[in-house]
Amino acid sequence: MKRVxxxxxxxxxxxxxxxxxxxAREMGDYLIVALSSDEFNRIKDKKSxxxxxxxxxxxxxxxxxxLVIAEEGWGQKEKDVERFEVDxxxxxxxxxxxxxxxxxxxxxxxxxxxxxxxxxxxxxxLYGEDAN
Length: 132
Description:
Radius of gyration: 14 Å
Strand order of the largest sheet: 3-2-1-4-5
Strand content: 15-25%
CATH superfamily: HUPs
Largest sheet: 5 strands, parallel
Helix content: 25-40%
């Protein structure tokens, strides 16, 4: 079984998120999503509309997602790759190069994000704010 992992906040779930998850799942047989906890989002200075449990329920309802785990901090990725015997680590292309240190443990892939949609864009359009 080929295992794939990706990370994110997945707030205000939208088409771009679904596309990223679909494409990540196509790279393997089992997709793990590490979802930023509310505490970790505070450390990253991110504000989510939905709390962790709500975001987790939404992700678990998506057919491409096999397992949702909590991401509690920056240093967790290497441990997760080992713990879950990950074959492929996937992130959006805006993180290009940031996780190349994992290449000795698994394949690292940066997927191009879906154009024309982002959580930041939605928040700006809905709330008129510069929200992370």
